[in-house]
Design a protein that fits this description.
By secondary structure, this protein is of the alpha/beta class. It is about 30% helix and about 15% strand. The protein has helices at about 5-15, 55-65, 80-90, 100-105, 115-120, 140-145, 170-175, 180, 220-245, 265-270, 280-285, 315-320, 380-405; strands at about 30-35, 50, 50-55, 65-75, 125-130, 150, 165, 165-170, 190-195, 250-255, 295, 305-310, 345, 355, 360, 365, 375. It has an eight-stranded mixed sheet, sandwiched between helices. It has a five-stranded antiparallel sheet with strand order 13-14-15-16-17. α1 (about 5-15) packs across α13 and α7 runs parallel beside α9 (about 220-245). The radius of gyration is 21 Å and the shape is globular. The protein starts with a helix and ends in a 27-residue tail after the last helix. The relative contact order is 0.20. Bound molecules: (2R)-2,3-dihydroxypropyl phosphate and manganese (II) ion.
Amino acid sequence: KKSELTGILKYVHKNYAAPDKKLYGVAKKKNVIIIHLESFQQFLINKKINGQEVTPFLNKLYKSKSTYSFDNFFHEVGQGKTSDAETMLETGTFGLPQGSLFTQLGNDNTFQAAPAIFDQAGYSTAVFHGNVASFWNRSNTYKNLGYQYFFDASYYDTSGDKSLGYGLKDKLLFNDSVKYLQHLQQPFYVKYLTVTNHFPFTLDKEDSTFKTPNTGDKTVDNYFKTAHYLDQSVKEFYAYLKKSGLAKNSLVMIYGDHYGISNSSNKSLAKLLGVNPDDWDDYDNAQLQRVPLMFNMPGYKKGKVEHTYGGEIDVLPTLMHLMGLSSKKYIQFGTDLFSKEHNQVVAFRNRDWVSPDYTSVDGTIYSNKTQQEIHPTGALKAKIEKMQKHVNQGLNFSDSLNQKNLLRFYHPKGFTAVDPSDYNYSDGLE
Ligand code: GP9
Ligand code: MN
């Protein structure tokens, strides 16, 4: 079994993309604050409904000179949804072909993941989340990832109208977590998992005055309301970051974990996006899987909107390089989005893919330029096959690494293995 690592390592080394020297370490020693925008898709950015911006604050961050934003960034989750996004971002490996890696392998697998890497670089690490710790088996998985603290629902007052479907409302999560955040030793690596913008996108009247559209599909209509609420939550958190002085010492990474509107509702959404619903097809569904990715460094002046194609698997090496941490000795399946050697073929978990010029859905190839199906021959056919091979290899190697728990045989130099028994997330009340 150990020998299977050899093939994986060969692939990972061949795939490795060296960082852009100008950006390497640009946020060195700063805090890392990750804001996981639940079910948040890229089309919300700069979108107006009835003349009103849905996400005015995020729009400002998106185009700010202090932010590197991406407009061709895709989620790559499978059935593990939020937990798949977390898997990719924390471990640099894909979620599983079926089910959730957190649920299936989170108890026992060996990881060489972001929390442990940052911990060993001198950071304190924590997750803030308004749902119960057991959801997606986080309480066990986080210990194996090496998170020092997990402030789950038990740390907050979630009574009455303070919480909704998946837990504490986002504004309260950001507000009520400050008392824990401010006691963390800096620099810290922390993650906020929001929940309010989650299907079925319901919200109490008192939490929003946003005037929803009227597509006839309640899910689509309400999505804009909860997204607007999420935007306000982030704005309020930023006010705290500014006031406390944390902003200027932090890199804030903001991303959408996956779609909120499923393919079956996309036709209702089409009208709002200026597309004739009758023309909506699989190609459009694939393109709609874009989610935001922003690296905001308050005070920084050289940010811009990047058009590079990439996905969630690419985030960890990108972030590590911005923070001045080499990713070279780790087994990660994505590459630094700022690297000239970054591969722009984005794998979906079901082996479909998107790239700057072509899109593949269910074996059908589309030209992005014409948005029409094509039937490649000759050199183009070979090129397309090469892209599919890249997608298959990445997913296959990642699956075999995780399913056979191969990292237990891999010992990157200078990395200390995580001992889950080092952590106890209880708030001492039970
Ligand atoms: C629950 C939240 C939602 O804690 O993270 O998970 P999802 O349903 O999006 O996978
Ligand atoms: Mn989610």
